[in-house]
Model the fold of this input.
Amino acid sequence: MESLSKPTPDCYRSIAAPSKGLFKDKGSKFLSFSFPVTSEDQIKEIITSVKKEYFDAKHHCYAYRLGHLGDIFRANDDGEPSSTAGRPILGQILSAELSDILIVVVRYFGGILLGTSGLIAAYKGAAADAIANSFIVEKLACQNWEIHFDYLQMNEVMTALKELKVQPTDQVFDEKCSATAQIRLSDTERFKELLKNVEICQKA
Done:
């Protein structure tokens, strides 16, 4: 796992691609999988897929955290004793200061009970291994804006976006023009000031 600078209010840490980890104890195997995610719908699809692929496993426990503030999160024990699986997984996500991440740990029971402390250590270790095998990246929190302008205002708009180092998308150039721009949160006020003579609205 790479060490990056401490996140700013609109800059946060996540993972670039899926990764895997493994933890073994007394015959039990804990297979861990981390995924970069951006929505709870995406998370549901991934969990369903993992459960389908590892249908013969006894437990499919997980935790996730979303958003640049990391204020959307959940931990699930999937039948393990309360707080012995999901919380340790989430704890590793928080410890690594990651967001937009899902970690699923699949357990194959080895026949010997591990006890509460053993389970916590196992799920913690499995999640930590998946994170250790991932590539950490910095993400910028942005908002999508629609820009509507007259043809004669095109130079003003494009100059402003260039100053903000933003590449517009969905561009329409006609008598009435429009474009979509992804603006970093910390640049929002500057964006509004630069385009104060142009109609802009935030996209949902």
